Amino acid sequence: MDRTERLGAEAEGALRVYLGRRVEHSMFLLSNMREAGIEASEHPRSGVYVGAFAGANLVGVACHYRKGNLVVNAPKHAVELGQAAVSASRRPLAGVVGPDSQVTAIADALGLPVGSDAQMDESDGLYRLELAQLRVPEPLRDGEVVGRPLDAADLDRVCAWSVRYHVETIGETETPELHRDVKAEHEAALGRGDIWVLERRGELVARTAYNARLPEAVQVGGVWTPHELRGLGFARCVVASHLLTARDAGVRTAILFTDDANTPARRAYAALGFERIGRYRLLLLRSPFRHG
């Protein structure tokens, strides 16, 4: 690496090419850039992008987003890029997300709280599926269950599920603010198809979502089945239904990550055809961290 520099509009094409070669590690970066652009703005998904260069070649990138998360894709220069992005943004750090070894290197260099000292610290299995190889579960194929986009009439129930997901999976505290934010997120998703639900005989039984989306790839997240309905195959059916719609729209690839300890989820995704390709880590902090 010869240098790091903040990336502007003139670097957007090169950044897309670099990240596109590593799409399984780049979904948040690519999706957020597609939605908010590369220049910092008031958009909630905007951030400060910093690149590492060897000569004229981009060899790594990190972005510190408005909401505080640092997302990295830099096989050899994660620490330098992470520090540069946080310094350039002048914002507190809320979390670090990216390939496991890169997040570990940044956390060690900055002295971040990890493990039980963090709000959430998971080194997850990273999975990929080419949608041409999607295996459709029998209940979905036979019409016993039906998937569809989130509707306004679903909001109360599905928002309640999502609050439980945030509390039980991400480690957030249930507050009026969390309920407000979840409701706003779901209302904004109406008509977009990013949040998907599954019905059995007219009853909602599961939900899923895309947490990152590109014309050629989607990243699955927020999969939830109420506790009393688990073990019946609804999670794999809701994900499969959502992915079938994506495939019909021309999407070729699906990415997801899940905790190794979540055996039912791993089995469900394997049944759909997902194959493990690496590790991805989410380190979310209990309180903001200021670098330097």
Automatic annotation (TrEMBL):
Keyword Transferase in record: yes
Pfam family, one: Acetyltransf_1
GO molecular function, one term: acyltransferase activity, transferring groups other than amino-acyl groups
Domain N-acetyltransferase positions: 145-292
SUPFAM superfamilies membership: Acyl-CoA N-acyltransferases (Nat)
Coiled coil regions, renumbered to chain: none
Domain of life per record: Bacteria
Keyword line: Transferase
The keyword Transferase belongs to this UniProt entry's keyword annotation: yes
This protein's name: Acetyltransferase (GNAT) family protein
Organism, as annotated: Enhygromyxa salina
Taxonomic lineage: Bacteria, Pseudomonadati, Myxococcota, Polyangia, Nannocystales
